[in-house]
Amino acid sequence: MVTGIISVPLMLEYFGANLFGIWVLILGLAGYLNSVSFGIPSAMSTLVAKTVGSDQKYQILQKSIILLSGIVTLLIIIFLLSISTNDAWIIALLGNISEEYEEITKKVFILFVIITLIKIPLNTYIQFFVGMNLVYVSEVYQILNMILCFLVLFLSYYMKLDFFVFSILTLFCQGFLGVAAAIHVILKFRYLNANIHGSNVVSTKEILQSGFAFFQVGLAASLVWSTDNLVINHFLSPEFVTPYTIAFKIFTYIFIFSAIINGVMSPIYGNAYAENNFEKIRIYASSILKFLSVIGGFVWVSLLFFAKDVIELWTGDEHAFGGYLLIFSLGFYGFILSFVNTYATITLSLNYANKTLWIAWSEAILNLVLSIILIKYFGIGGVALSTALASFFTGFLFLPQAIKKLTNGRVYFESSFFIRHFIFLIIPSLLLAIFTISIDVFFIKFILYFVLFGLYLYVTWRFLHEKDKDIIFGILKRRA
């Protein structure tokens, strides 16, 4: 978060809105490129975690690396042949890139695709640490990746390096970490390799079959999270990608909290499922839903109050603010995700992901269709609104029904608290926040916000049952 917050104004100031937008656009393709791994890294990690024999764990890794290396080699050959024949399709894929930036965009795109593909089998070694119950090691590699990329940006900024050199250094650092992880695994677990006795518990076919569900979930998620920038650039231009990305970064920084809470809950749901204690799952999930929806609603209101001031102060550029419809829509999306993330955590923890894939695909397709329609009328705000509406009409409405059906009615969600909270607190708070848009004096806005904050907490606390309060406090203490 810290490196991200510092990086945005640095990149925006040094490279400008166009190159910043192009960089974000190209980085957004990583989700699609990683999908060509067909979910093998995630499947490998899961299979390694479930396998008892140490020698078999390393065998699964080896088979996965061989599979991925073959896939990646084939794709790189196809990619090189396609660009050697004609590289005009690159600009057609990315959208409206002005002639001034076409050449540099092609160079960075080609470099990015090749390095990203090479990284796929290398990054699988990082995933192996997760399967070996050494999650903290994989997280250390992620942190190192962020720090190295930030140092490259810092170096580029102060040494006045051009955009292409910055891209080369950034991608080289990422590739270097992949190589380091591979060496780390080979040296740390060389005793596993030495103990392989030709046992063949997990076949290549099983790895591919297990990976297919992960592949579908990952691809659907990429369509939701990575398509927006492509749509914006195709119908508008890279300058419009910049304010959308900046607003979305604020949104993601805030909702990391939701991911942390659901991350704590996942093993609790899994253990309760193993004990066949569905009542425990229902009670805990209901309390967490109430807690996160309260947070989500207040974040929605807070964004409307202060997002413009924060973005302009953060970037030092008034054009970096993408408008109030964008902020309203992202706040709405965050509120919906408070529910959807909790539902998704339950389905994954209870191993129901395969049975809810149609919901993920429906969201991805609906998001794309609505984005193409609404961008024509509402600009980048319409794209964000499409993302929120797609999540509402799919995951929000259908996941709780699917969970209830899959658990034979044992896990269900009552709606009385959410209806009361939305009508009596969130709607009035949103109306007040929208009213403050016309107020130019920051002090007056802050006083109104402070009063609203107190009322919001007080009334919400009165709405909650004592059992909900006990569970919420218990989860927060568990995280601390």
Tags for this model:
single chain, 19 helices, 480 residues, mainly alpha, 2 domains
Account of the protein in words:
With 480 residues, the chain is mostly helical. The chain has two domains: 2-202, no CATH class; 224-479, no CATH class. 85% of the residues lie in helices and 0% in strands. Helix 3 (40-50) runs antiparallel to helix 10 (204-235), helix 10 packs parallel to helix 15 (357-378) and helix 13 runs parallel beside helix 17 (416-435). The two termini are 19 Å apart.
Task: Give a quick precis of the structure.
This protein is mostly helical. It has two domains: 201 residues, no CATH class; 256 residues, no CATH class. The chain contains 19 helices and no strands.
SSE sequence, one letter per element = HHHHHHHHHHHHHHHHHHH
Query: Sheet bearing the most strands, described?
Result: none
- How many structural domains in the coordinates? 2
Question: Whole-number radius of gyration?
Answer: 24 Å
How many DSSP H or I helices?
19
Into which percentage range does the β-strand content fall?
under 5%
The structure class reads mainly alpha
Mean pLDDT: 81
